[in-house]
Amino acid sequence: MIRRNDELVLQHLEDVKIKFSEVEEPMSFTIEFIFRSNEYFFNKVLTKTYRMRSDPDDSDPFFSKGPEIIGSTGCEIYWKEGKNVTVKTTKLQKCEGRRSVSTTRKMPSCSFFTYFYPPDYPEGRVLDVATDYKLGYFFREVLVPKSVLFFTNEASGYKYESSDNEVQEAGGEEKKVEVMR
């Protein structure tokens, strides 16, 4: 998911935190990516919140799988002029008679930062819902709690593999999915 342009932006990342909802609130967790001031966007913190359900299934309460993610909410990134890595600007030239007219067109570009798009973002969701939820789960359960191991490269051989059933449910291929590169 991380492209070369993303790496330049991610150099400004200072911390990643997971915040859980309070007991009286609906069950959720928020992933916070904290950045120092940079030339790419104005935000100091980019967030992604996942809502969860923990009620047992009424039809079979004894075989509940536990809490499950039921929705996510991203944040808007306030990009600085010409620095948005989630769009690619292309110049088009049209010939109209004897003169040519040039226009620019913005198209979505592959970027890690599309992960933060709200579900109703005009550019549309780039990640399918199952992949979005798996990334949230991966950040919450693996990457953030074991960040020191990844930082010291002790976890360099770690591979997060989903089961064949999870991959099929997500509509993916039947091979194992490697999340870490």
From TrEMBL:
GO cellular component: nucleus
Chain segments annotated as coiled-coil in the UniProt record: none
Any Pfam family: NAP
Family, similarity comment: Belongs to the nucleosome assembly protein (NAP) family.
Name this protein carries in UniProt: Nucleosome assembly protein 1-like
InterPro entries: NAP-like_sf, NAP_family
Biological process annotations from GO: nucleosome assembly
Gene3D superfamilies in UniProt: Nucleosome assembly protein (3.30.1120.90)
